[in-house]
Fold each of these.
Amino acid sequence: MANLMKRTGSFHLPRPSRGHFAALAESILHQQLAGAAARAIHRRFVALFDGDLSPEAVLAVPPRKLRAAGLSGRKVASIRDLAAKVVDGTVPLHRLGRLADEELITRLSIVRGIGRWTAEMFLIFQLRRLDVWPVGDYGIRKGYALAYGLRKLPTPKQLDMVGERFRPYRTVAAWYCWQAVREQRKLRQ
């Protein structure tokens, strides 16, 4: 890991550029889509709201308009479920930053289309938490194997155990695992 850190430079997370609701909606929209397609659908989705992407605005738009913007039926259901749960207080966006990681993961995971991985990415990239170790992420598993010269990818359970040594900065270790994967891609090009 030390060699990887020297090669790839200092750890840094980008500053969040949007609010919590917009970030979660974008996460839902990007799931299981290639980058260009996801970005195009996201642009059309955001354009529906004329700068007012709020839970209330999403609930006011008929599902057929969301479908016309390119959202699948499942994504329409997920986005509307997120909006409804924010409006009714089940997902208290104004207080998410104060919740403990596991409590936040539990709260977000009750939203259709949001699972542990999406919640962990929200913790890392939106709330900038420094002790998140997303063991189910393929990039973390692959990057860890690359950083430590392992022939086989560690299982999530194995990765969970070895991650303990990175506490309380497991996000930093995760970020370097992602850098190992990026480094490998660059070498292959």
Amino acid sequence: MSPETARIHFQEELQRLEEQALGGLDMVVTALDRAIEALNHQDVELASLVINDDDRIDGRYLEVHQGILSLMATQAPVAGDLRVVAALLHVIHHIERMGDQCVNIAKLIPLDGHEPPTHPDILERIDKMAQLVRSEVGQAKQCFSLRDAELAEDLVRQDEVVNKLQREVFQTALEIGDHPDVREWAMHMILVARCLERVGDNAVDIGEQTAFVVTGLFREFSDASHASAP
């Protein structure tokens, strides 16, 4: 195989691995939608599906990770491709972590019983968080695919709203009252909000990897995208 042919093969394989990795974000959106639907309807069976299907996201992680390592063993990438290779290793890791957060939400659902006491303000904020985070995941895929650093940095704007809603869920849960069942449910919603906040943070991290691919420099967009839990 000539050097030119080998180079073309390398770039084609790298593109295929990138498409596989970014396809994992579609899997995350599906898991997130199912987890929130299961939460809203207290659907234990759907929650179990989220948990079981996480094996597919984990499998995608392993497939892309091993594919990148095998590709690196065949040909040394030039600087531009090396940035993509390094970024994809981070991206697929963030995708795997997003899937884990969806599983964490699903695992909380059976703990509250069939008809748990709820609070409309908390549920409304959880739903808003889920919508924003879903948008962040989709935008993370788009910005990396398009190599759009400006679109990547715009993720911070949405993530700041997610962080604000998380703090509001936490505060409302603290003030919810003294009934043990209500307080237990509220504590679970704090954990749900934390899981959603982490999915959003991982989307911002993918945006940061996009900027790295485009510019060759890594920087965190904003401290707000890495806010710690209340």
Amino acid sequence: MIIDIGIIAAKAFLVLFMVLNLAGILGWIERKGSALIQDRVGANRASILGFAGLGLVNTLIADPLKFLTKEDFVPPQGDKFLHTLAPCMAPSGAMVATLSFCTLPLRLV
């Protein structure tokens, strides 16, 4: 029984790993495509310190750095805790709906 649960957990982690990697790859492809469509210097031609790296430098270094250093404006009468918590809670409805349709076959013998 423990081996069965371990196999199911390994399959779940494998699928999660594949989906997370696919999301990053599709985001990179979307950036390259939109840069070509808009005829602008995008992820496919922009470079950081002379190194373009097929646009991966922007995706892996510049975007997270920009995200972490952005200024967060909280209105004077606003609650700072709720203002910070709201973006974290926004996708929870979609996640609950998605997980409610996911089933893992589990045999308990």
Amino acid sequence: MGSRLETEQRDVPLFPLQTVLFPGGLLPLRVFEQRYLEMAKGCLRDNTPFGVCLIRDGAEVGAPATPEDIGCLAHIKHWDMQQLGLLQLVAQGGRRFRIVARRIRADGLILADIALLVEQADAPLPEKFGACRRLLERIVADHGERLFAAPFLLDSSAWVGARLAEVLPLPAAARQKLLELDSALERLEILDRLLADSALAPNRSGQS
């Protein structure tokens, strides 16, 4: 899982969170700690991403948390500061990465050397995952761009799997395992089995 590496980047700021960001996913954040305000300012100034990792040990606020080794780059798309000292932003997931080395700055911000994981090959959504598509179609119809960034790629195995992994009621550790998978089809297989065992999916014949 997550074993194929591509280019390396140095000194990428990390934002450990109690959530998992997937490529293409939207991440709304309320930023108030000084270290992350400075991080966001630098990312906006230089048009660079920061890294989002699930917290393995620790908390979002206070002492630096220990992040999982595999995370996702986040690119700031929108930001607003209507209240001094409180930055509201929306970031979008980019490439997955593995942490190679990390160090903690004096202000508590974690900087990491990362290796980008090779981008996952996409494929048209197989018919056998029709239940996954129908559920996501319902969610898109009800919530649209509040949850997802357009375009809505309902024929894409990678897009459908990532979006379902974001919105289904899964433990954070399970989302992390799904993020680490190199295969979009393997991710869909797991999600399809979860839907089959739950009351969330439209019935398997395609009827609502």
